[in-house]
Design a protein that fits this description.
By secondary structure, the protein is mainly alpha-helical. The chain has helices spanning about 40-50, 55-75, 90-105, 120-140, 150-165, 170-180, 185-195, 200-210, 210-220, 235-250, 260-275, 280-295, 300-330, 345-365, 395-405, 405-430, 435-445, 455-475, 495-500, and strands at about 1-10, 20-25, 510-515. It is built from 19 helices and three strands. It has a three-stranded antiparallel sheet with strand order 2-1-3. It is globular. The two termini are about 30 Å apart. It is a multi-pass membrane protein.
Amino acid sequence: MSERVALLEAPVPGEPERLRTQVLPKRSSAAPAPGAEPVPSSDVASDAASGAEDPAGPRLVTSVVAALLGLAAATVGLKVGAVAGVPLFAALVAAGLLVAVVPVLRRGRAGLAAFRPTAVDGVFVLYLVVRVAAELVDSGGLRGAQLGTVGDLAVSYAALWAARLAVGRPAELPRFLLVLVVTSVPVSVVAVLQIADVPRLNRLLVATTQSGGLADRLADGSDLRATSTIGHWTNLGGYLLGIITLGCLALTLGRSWRRSPGLLVVVGLAVVAQLATLTLAPVLVTVLVLVATARRLRLRAVALGAAALVVVVGALLLGGLVLNRVQDQLSRRSSSPGLTNLLPETIAYRVVIWRRETLPAIAERPWTGWGNGLYLPGSGTPRPAYLRWMSPESEWFRVAVQAGVPALLVLLALLLVVLLRLRRAARADGRWSLLVWYLSGLLVISCLHSHLSGRGTPLVLWVAVGVVLAAASAGWALPSPEPPSPAPRRALTGAAARTPFPTAAGVDRSRYVARREAAPMTDTRP
């Protein structure tokens, strides 16, 4: 037995309304046997399988861990607030890892599957071992070991695991990203207020954050560049780039807050703060991420207008500084002879440093480098006479100078494994491609900046990697956005009002209104 269902298609401007018919199996009206459990509908089963209604416990754990990790990434530059000699950001990451681990351990043997190692774990641990070994070797011939850089790497790895354990199901990911991105609001606000030259704000940041570059600019009257609570404009640019990417990813995932004006305002504020850093490389990658996001989203007019308003206001406030920065970096030419004279100043001076200082330092100690304290003021690390500039102006050269070429090769292998994992996830679901753009751009601009060795970028980066590993290990897909629910064309009465929407394959419930009528089908519309 079967029955016909009339499907009244929602009108398209300029086209008449159409009726479609479909033959569906007739449902049995027999009552279930005594004591038998009712069979859930396909919608209920799919919601249960996807974890759409997660318990309050996992939701709370997800939110708390995201808040702790977000606050840790936002406070990496603070000089105050150390807990028992441990930096505040490291203590926050440790607390987040503890909150994430305890519920998993309570599940007993079933929870141990969450700790299954991956290729990323293996190469990351190898990189830690190589960095420690190189530093111990350097400490014998140069000075005492300085493991601060290795400690930062360990904190980043702990953040990866905290995010990986906190996001156990698809329904928890939008909440995790939302809370994490919201923690960036104070950082963005402070960055914008810095450029607005709010009285005594910059002096307060010099006193409370590790921002020697800001102090120098205040002293010599140079153009201000936002550092916020991160401590340096380059590190702030890398931090905001990660926040913007995760915020854009959240826009493609959420149900209740998908395409919400509030989340777009947070992302727009981060974009304005990114402009306030006056660091062109992260700004360019930010533009690429935003373009990739725009291709995947059809933003509502109100939400798009809210974000555009924030960006326009920020551009009006910062437009002069940004234009001056672009003209200063791209119009001037190097005064050095040779090919560098043809390059913009922002590239040419780096080439001179690499040729005169960085490459000779690598050639002199290629296996273990000069130690982690080489570029730290007051570290006491012996320096070659030709090494005068206090930055290698490149992530890859920094690692090679500090820890040797083998450490650089392991780091590149780690990032390659992560990039391949992201590309595999993006092939399964195109929304992960935002992270592919993010990491690819970060690798390119790291040729000119030390993003991965600084504080700010690594925590956000490895939290994002932890989220991807959680999805890959559990084998779940990204949550599907909830389709819009159009208002019904007309009220249904009688048997039609009691008939649920058909769930057969090929029927889009959001575009049709079902009306159950006896065969043959007749159009009763006025």
